[in-house]
Specification:
Chains A, B: This is AcrR family transcriptional regulator. The structure is a homodimer. Chain A has helices spanning about 15-30, 40-45, 60-85, 90-110, 110-120, 125-150, 160-175, 185-200. Helices cover about 65% and strands about 0% of the residues of chain A. Chain A binds a DNA duplex through helix 1.
DNA sequence: GTCTATATCTTGATAGAC
DNA sequence: GTCTATCAAGATATAGAC
């Protein structure tokens, strides 16, 4: 975690203040884009003055990167855990559905961090993006493995371009923060619809209900 | 078109310069986000100095809004035209595929305007977003009609939430600018994969190849 | 029509008091 | 640890020459 060099324990006031700042930054980043997220606004939302942020972070960029990274890692953790909890004999296509559900729930249930990460991926300055690349690739490989398993077990429709299909599915999920909050649709409906679309979209055979 | 109040014909130098400025803004907005798009960079890309922009636009915001609106309208025009060119007896599900293809081609073939529009939808300041809402709703209704037709003709799987399915499909397409440029996949592969996923994802019956 | 020069405003960041 | 006060940088926007 990229904090300033001030040593301190997890139980004191300081840690709570940093958490407030981080959470405020996550909320603002999840609503607006990186560039419109002003330090002053973040500080106000956290109930401190702007300079207080510099006690915890060396720069605005460091704070933003911390938030996005936490969101990224949090999503991966959720999805990975959901998959690992599955029975060893679960069909690969079913695993993909579980990943779809976990990714969606991370985005909309877990916290502002995940939404902040997704909505700002394309807006990161170059160096930040490069530092983040390793995390992104690792998460991408989680999905890649699922798709390869499904293909190897003959569950995918023949001729499907694996990588393209994978990125289209993830894209459908990652775009949901742009519209779901305004919609009157319950999260359950979003989850089941996304699973249905994905399963039938990818499956080689008509899918049992 | 939101230009300044200086009257002039379409054939003179002035119109060409404005077009250069607008195109430069579109390119920069399609690469970075709204907030990192500096007026100076746009001017440089257009081959003028920053103050020259104010001969054509009253403010930075007006220029950006012009670009996004053109992209939005351009996408809708492409999709609408592609659908209207179809034979009257085309199945509704096939129409949706044509819309998917047209939307993707508008994004990746047509111009920077469309990509600029999609990548910056979520970053617009409040008032700009409100002014743009009518255009967005109109485009949404184009898709909505397609989905309703498909449902009414029994081509959609029963129990599918129409609006959610529609927004997931469009989301998958709108997210492609985040990754497709780096990918080594030809546009044709992207188009056919997206059509396949959509068709099988939505269809009530196994789809003929 | 487009430029140079400059005014003005916003915001990230620092200094130092408490 | 957090604040007030302030600086420095960078951006939008304007004035006025050409």
């Amino acid at each position: 975690m990229a904090t300033a060099e001030v040593p301190r324990t997890l139980t004191d006031k300081s840690a709570r203040t940093q958490e407030r700042i981080r959470a405020a930054a996550a909320r603002i980043l999840s609503e607006r884009g990186i560039a419109t997220a002003r330090l002053g606004d973040i500080a106000a939302a956290a109930g401190v003055q702007a300079p207080a942020i510099y006690y915890y972070y060396a720069s605005r960029e460091e704070l933003i990167e911390d938030v996005i990274r936490l969101g990224q890692i949090g999503t991966e953790a959720r999805v990975t855990q959901a998959i690992e909890e599955l029975d060893g004999h679960t069909p690969a296509l079913e695993k993909i559905c579980v990943a779809v559900e976990a990714h969606l729930r991370a985005l909309h249930e877990l916290s502002d961090y995940t939404t902040a990460a997704v909505r700002n991926v394309g807006q990161m300055p170059t160096e930040m993006r490069e530092r983040m690349r390793a995390d992104q690739r690792r998460y991408g490989r989680v999905w890649k493995r699922l798709f390869e398993q499904a293909r190897d077990q003959g569950e995918l429709r023949a001729g499907l371009d694996l990588r393209t299909a994978q990125l289209l599915v993830i894209g459908a999920l990652n775009w949901t923060p742009e519209w779901w909050a305004d919609s009157r649709v319950p999260l359950e409906t979003l989850v089941t619809t996304a699973c249905e679309l994905t399963r039938h979209g990818l499956a080689s055979d008509p899918v049992a209900p």
